[in-house]
Amino acid sequence: MEWEYKLHHQPLMTKLPLTGKGGLKNYEENIKKSEKEINNIAKEGWELFSSHVTAFNMLVYIFRRSKN
């Protein structure tokens, strides 16, 4: 039980060397790249979603106007 706790709660930084492939600097750069990619995907997804919502609202508006 105790070794499981240590295994799961040991910070990842202590296991990484400072330089080289898989090193701390490389790890930090990869995190920054991943954050940028995630932000871009989220932005694209939000734009797509909001355009669909806008189109749906326009259809609802047209449908309601045509009933009156």
Secondary structure layout:
Elements: H1 2-9, H2 24-67
Describe the structure.
By secondary structure, the protein is an all-alpha fold. The chain has a domain at about 20-65. About 75% of the residues lie in helices and about 0% in strands. The radius of gyration is 24 Å and the shape is rod-shaped. The mean pLDDT is about 75.
Keyphrases for this structure?
76% helix; rod-shaped; 0% strand; mainly alpha; 68 residues
Biggest β-sheet: count, sense, barrel?
A: none
Taken in chain order, the helices and strands follow as: HH
Q: How many beta-strand elements?
A: 0
How far the N terminus sits from the C terminus, by CA atoms, comes to 70 Å
Shape: rod-shaped
**Structural class label:** mainly alpha
Low-confidence runs (pLDDT<50, min 5 residues)?
A: none
Q: Which percent range describes the beta-strand content?
A: under 5%
Put simply, the count of helices is 2
Q: Quick check: average pLDDT?
A: 77
Percent of residues in helices comes to over 70%
Radius of gyration: 24 Å
Write a brief caption for the model.
By secondary structure, the protein is mainly alpha-helical. Helix content is 76%, strand content 0%.
